[in-house]
Every structure is written in C-alpha cells, then in structure tokens.
Amino acid sequence: MYKTTKVRSAMLEIFTRNPTPLTTRDIILKLKQNHLNPNKTTVYREIEFLNNLGLITGVDFGEGKKRYELTRKHHHHIICIKCKTIKDISLEKDLGLDSSKIIKTTGFKPISHSLEFFGLCKNCQ
Amino acid sequence: MYKTTKVRSAMLEIFTRNPTPLTTRDIILKLKQNHLNPNKTTVYREIEFLNNLGLITGVDFGEGKKRYELTRKHHHHIICIKCKTIKDISLEKDLGLDSSKIIKTTGFKPISHSLEFFGLCKNCQ
DNA sequence: GTCCTTGCAAATCATTTGCAGGCAC
DNA sequence: GTGCCTGCAAATGATTTGCAAGGAC
Question: What are the pLDDT digits (tens) for B81-91?
Fold first, then answer.
C-alpha cells in the first residue's frame, strides 16, 4: 500500500498551492523552502508516482524538460517566450469535435492532444 | 556567405524527401544511407543553420527530443502513441481566431501555438 | 517485520561548447 | 587565402537505474 511520507505530502501541497506547471527544479527549490532536501532521484520517482495515480499531469513547452501540474479540468496554457511566465487558457469550443474528421482523413484514432500557446506577457511586450 | 557542403545538400534533400518530422538520430541514419558519416555535432549545427534560415521547423511531441521538418503551410500532426508513426492534420478553422480573446483574458499577446494530437494508428488500434 | 521509499553514484540521452584543422569559393 | 564547416572530446542538463539502507504501517 502507499505510504504517507514527508516528501509525498509536501509535493502534493506544492502542486496544490501552485497553479503553474512546475519543472523538477522548481519543485526541488520549493521543497527546500519547506526545509526538505530530498535527492532529485526521489523527486523524479515521486513525480512518476503522482503521475501514474493521475494526480498530476505532464506539460511540455518544448523546453527540453517536462513540467507538471495538478490534474484538473481540461485547459491550455500560454507561456511568455521571454520570461517564461505561464497563464491558463480555456477555449470554449473543444478540439475533440474534429475526432471523426481525423479518423476519416488519417485512419488514426485520436486519444488526446496538446495545445500550448507562446507569446509575450504584459511586462515583456 | 553560406557554402554548399555535402552535409548541407544531403540534409536538405532528406528533409525534402521525408514529410515526417525527423529526430537528429533519424537524420544521421539517413545520412549514413547516403554514404555520409558526419559527426553529430555537425548535424546539430546544420539543423540550427537551416532552422535559422527558416527552411526547417521544429516540432516537439514531448518525447524529450526535438524533431524537424521542412517548413511549409501551417499544419498539425497526430502521432501514434505505440509505434510513433506521424501523420499530418489540417484544421480548417484557425486557432488564431482566439487571439483577441486571449489578449483580453490573459494580457498576453499570442505569437504562435503548438497543437499536436496523440492516438493510435490503423495498425496499432 | 514487510515492503514501500530514499539516497548515492553511475549510466543514459539529447544537446552544446571550445578549439584546432579542413574545405568551399 | 579567408571565413565558414567539420570533427573530436568534453561539458552540460534532464532523466533513469541499480543497489543497499531507512522508515511508514
């Protein structure tokens, strides 16, 4: 059975408090602020654990590293190409609408998609 | 001024012949088939060169590595989560429509976006 | 006490950098 | 000959793995 460890509780709390997709580095820094100094291996394994449970979800902005955020209602992000600030975006029309068309034109059965926007935040414009 | 080298010509031809986004590894393999054995550093630098000229465009499926394809009309992809086969997708309605809404709700000025689909190809279903 | 968790060191993988030598023009 | 191109080795950064020790229940 799963165990309630310090790192686990702290990471869940960090994800809960931070609405922004976090890198492993971000997480380790925030754990330090909580007076926890786990090995990065532990953090990677805990990420995998929470991800497998579906509690967190991976996001990739093509930065060469993954980010993770608490799993919640389907949404997208816009990331500032200068300062990397991230904001959520919700599109009213769902892209899933195109499923039948994708099946027809490609033969693929779509399961999920990733849609991320890039731009300039208010400060960096 | 730019020079016409064997690797440069071969890579351009490879991108032209292959409609699918290629990894560095893919490119090196295909160069070998063309009896070229360049150092991977050379390939990375050539990718950067062609990318800076805008001749090729980077694509990221969250695989932990980048892919590149010949630059052409805006489109998206669907990748098979099992065998990694990739197919193009064109959506009639452009997502740029949401720009003004994004500006209003987030304060960000959107510049580009990445939209990739994941699913199962005909064989893997 | 059992077995999940953790730490540490080392390995793996994609990508980058510094520097010296090589080739296109 | 000049200046871009290339190779090689080593560095960097993210992520993974093996194994032995530690801690939750």
Answer: 999 999 999 87
pTM (two decimals): 0.92
Domains in chain A and their CATH numbers? 6-70 (1.10.10.10), 76-124 (3.30.1490.190)
Write the DSSP assignment of chain A as a string of letters: -----HHHHHHHHHHHH--S-EEHHHHHHHHHHTT----HHHHHHHHHHHHHHTSEEEE--SSSS-EEEE--SS-EEEEETTT--EEEE--SS-GGGGHHHHHHHH--EEEEEEEEEEEE-TTT-
pLDDT in tens, B33-57: 999 999 999 999 999 999 999 999 9
**In chain B, positions 59-78, which contact chain A (CB-CB < 8 Å)?**
60, 62, 64, 66, 78
Strand C close to B24 by CB, under 7 A: yes
Using pLDDT thresholds of 50, 70 and 90, give the confidence band for residue A4: very high
Mutate to test the interface with B, among A60, A66, A106, A115 (most CBs of B within 10 A): A106
